[in-house]
Amino acid sequence: MKGKNMKRILVACGNGVATSTVVASKIRDYCKDKGVDVKTKQCRMIELHDKADDYDLVVTTGKFNDPDIKTPCIMGISLLTGIGQDKTLQQIVDALK
Amino acid sequence: MDVIVNGIYAAFQAILSAGAYVMLPLIITILGLIFRLKFSRAFRCGITITCGFVGINLLVNLLKTAVTPAASAMVSNIGLNLEVTDVGWGAISSITWASPIVGFLVFEILGINILMFILKATNTMDVDIWNYHHMMIAGILVFFVTNNFVLALIATALMAVISFKLCDWTQPLVENFFGIPDVSLPTVSYLSSIIIAAPLNWVIDRIPGLRDVNINIKNVQKRIGFLGDPMILGFILGVAMGVLAWMPWDKAFLTGVNVAAVMALMPKMTAMFVEGLMPISQAAQDMASKRFGGRALSIGLDAAVVVGNSDVITTALIMIPVTILLAFILPGNRMMPLADLAVVTFRVAIIVALCRGNVFRSILVSIPVMAAILYAGTAAAPYLTALATSTGLQFDGEIASMAGPSLTQTAIVFWSCISANPWLAIVILIAVFALVWYVVEKKIGMEKIQAYASQGQQA
User: Fold this and answer.
1) I need a labelling partner for B437 at 20 to 30 A (CA). Which of B5, B51, B108, B235 fits?
2) What's the predicted TM-score (pTM) here?
3) What is the architecture of the domain spanning A7-96?
4) H/E element holding B282?
5) Per residue in B57-88, pLDDT tens?
6) Is A43 assigned a catalytic role?
7) Is 0.85 exceeded by the ipTM?
8) Which positions ≥6 away from A49 have C-beta within 8 Å?
């Protein structure tokens, strides 16, 4: 079954490198614990407009709003501050169901 | 005292002569151990970072090889001297972390933050160790130029204090305009723009007519959104340089492909660098927040969290071609903007917040800010190039970026500390900053800043 239910998450931050790395690794660890098969890719928020629609879920490390994007977006800043982190992680898992 | 200083200096020299590829894993492993990572994890971090560094090194080389012939031909053909190549912030940060004194500077900045926090001189607890490189580059460059460790410590301290204060003062903008409470952003690449932007915005507010202009610019993302893709942007710029160098079409096309490749691959290499550093940054964060986090009024985060704002993206997309144009027309500029065009968002984010989302005014203010970055990058290029070469990067010609000594704040600290009379310059700098501190907190007051910021509140 592996691969078939694989969910693709696009994690976006300012430069597609720093904070998205932290957030992506936390999402992968949490999903692994919950038995959800995910693959994460990182990019910059400026690229979301063109790339977001190829993914099941978008997680941003900051506020982001683009009415043209149809993929659900979750703001993951709590994964950086640590405040409310588990709630956001659960929200991410729920969104993938 | 002399014995100790000489001893430390001798130790540095010994590590330094082994080269960055040997030094980097050692430094990072030690840092990891200090922040209580397991040895195997810490060592893995060190090796991962070094591999990222090797990759960045290869790309800087490729970029220089690809654009140097075009850049030199542009000089002889049309007298356009843009021989200083913008290799990007990733390369500069990797050079920073590869410095032998980096271990001291990390703890110096952390110590200054904790001290200021205890003395209530700052509300920010900056646990974003990764972005310390923006503050440390000043000290590392000063150490490289002067060989004076004390001056390097002072330069880093100045960077830290200025960053934490600017970060406190601009926190209301983050809270109100970007809608992120309890967070402040001590990322220098983002903060530094305020030094030029705040006075300029104040002036514009006093010019009748101009102060009321607010052109609503729509659909920028649809029309020039492709400029936000570094690969496509790199290709266009490479081909354009080839054409201006009067190369045959295939050579111009090839230059485009090479620049595109560097722009597309650089973030991947930098990501590897970050991947290695993040466990250490996280460990440091856990340690610091366990002791002080509960009391922090604002948590210092990477400015990456605010650059997704649509007005910021719009302003940045417009500023990309404007910055290239500036590079071509500004007399005396020798820096060719390339890799860091991908992160213009960071340089303009605070301007957009200050202008409360007025894109027209944001662009007006961004122009001198970006011009200052180009000039400071040009001026510091010889030093940065020499530093990069000393850590093992190899290339022809000179390099710069839109980070490091190109940023206004870093440039002010760097040039003060290496001036003919550094002690006098440092005293003047401290006096000026103390005056600004007094004006902002006592004359204007944080309540007024809070009120200004909340007026610009977005729906």
Assistant:
1) B108
2) 0.85
3) 3-Layer(aba) Sandwich (3.40)
4) helix B249-291
5) 888 888 888 888 888 888 888 888 999 999 99
6) no
7) no
8) A66, A68, A69, B221, B225, B228
